[in-house]
Design goal:
Number of helices: 9
Distance between the termini: 17 Å
Order of helices and strands: HHHHHHHHH
Helix content: over 70%
Strand content: under 5%
Number of strands: 0
Largest sheet: none
Radius of gyration: 17 Å
Length: 198
């Protein structure tokens, strides 16, 4: 068991993918957790309506996870796809909470969820598609990615962003958007995916 893990941990692509998925989960959990109370505090919107708005993020994630691979199959370049998704997600996070219109908030949060969810299936397919891994090491690679994914969902919102921003929700969401800057930079460094079945 030690040898497969050593191979996986020495693969640069797995680390880059893991960091990317950490950033996506960090941003997504931050938005979904704090969006209802933030919108109520900033705009005085009914909390039930705020919850509905926040749920658009989850709906968007589901749509993005379906449409993302379709778009990726057309682009066929992981650097372009991931960096593009990061830029579009960054724009969504920056904008999705800034407007007091309930209708606009629904649309922008849905858009943001789609952009954040679009790259998730691509990251989860990385263990099979990255050079030097393939099906032989896919289990160990998926374990590394899943572990760092959970770290991103827990550590980034709880121990990094919230302690810095406190109850300043504008700052909190701005910090969440910085996660997409990190994803963008990692995306530019990703090795090309391919059908490698070693």
């Amino acid at each position: 068991m030690g040898i497969p893990l050593k191979v996986v941990l020495s693969n640069k692509g797995i680390w880059l993918v893991s960091i990317c998925i950490m950033m996506v989960l960090g941003s997504t959990v931050t938005l979904s957790t704090f969006m209802p109370v933030a919108l109520q505090t900033m705009y005085g919107i009914n909390l039930k309506v705020c919850g509905t708005i926040a749920s658009m993020l989850t709906l968007g994630n589901c749509i993005g996870s379906i449409t993302g691979p379709i778009v990726f199959s057309k682009i066929k370049n992981v650097k372009v796809f991931v960096s593009g998704a990061a830029v579009l997600s960054f724009a969504g996070i920056i904008m999705c909470w800034r407007f007091p219109s309930i209708f606009v908030l629904h649309i922008l949060v849905l858009y943001t969820g789609i952009m954040l969810g679009a790259s998730m299936p691509i990251f989860l397919s990385a263990p099979v598609l990255l050079e030097g891994l393939g099906t032989k090491y896919a289990g160990s690679a998926a374990g590394v990615i899943s572990t760092l994914q959970l770290f991103g969902a827990v550590l980034i919102p709880t121990y990094i962003l919230t302690p810095i921003a406190g109850e300043n929700y504008s700052l909190l969401f701005m910090l969440a958007s910085i996660c997409m800057v990190i994803m963008f930079l990692c995306g530019l460094l990703l090795p090309q995916f391919g059908n490698n079945q070693k």
